[in-house]
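Example 253.
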Amino acid sequence: MGKSPDIRIKTPEELRILRDAGRILAGIFDEIKNLVKVGMTTGEIDQVADSLIKRSNVVPAFKGYRGFPACACISVNEEVIHGIPGKRVVRDGDIVGVDIGIIHQNYYSDMAVTLGIGLLEPGRQKLLDVTRQALMHGIAKARPGNRLTDISHAVQSYVELKGFSVVRDFVGHGIGRKLHEDPEIPNYGAPNQGPLLKAGMVFAIEPMVNMGLARIKVLSDGWTAITADKKPSAHFEHSVAITESGPLILTVK
Ligand code: MG
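Predicted structure in complex with magnesium ion:
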């Protein structure tokens, strides 16, 4: 974590726009969940995302970001995050991470879901359930008076209690007028460290959880992160505002 992060406190008007952006993005995900089927390629899933984004009158945030070529990051099974959509075919029993960012009225929203395709082997179903629940445990710590790594610690301790491992190489982040703002939000670490959380901060919290070991590697495409042991990995993400009364998940309808 860098020194003294510059964490922007959003105004009520900014929070209203971010809430609208999150509602739009959650709606896009609702449709994607219904449209992704066995036999589709990840490139076709990205086309679905592209058309839903266009129809929602928002701008895809990832396309062109540091040269990323698509609207969605789509990461299948052993792919952790940042999978580039292409010819890979989605099969029954796969888990498919879909991560999308949008820009609405100059503000960003970021969300990821890992979809189970068809009937999952029980270990994979547990991986999805634990990752989704780890995100909720992290979000529950996003309240004024806590410190940043209370989020990190809540994620890690839950994941490890359930016998899985958290990825160290990628972190959550602040979000607002930029896709990636301060602070970085690790998914591991001791509690009660880092900046005090305050109302008006907005974070993208995004645990990546591996069924096997935590170690990952990045493929020669420069983007796709896979597990070093080739075992499955899951990823869930919400954009979340800290309010006086606690966390407010922005990326829900
Ligand atoms: Mg993110």
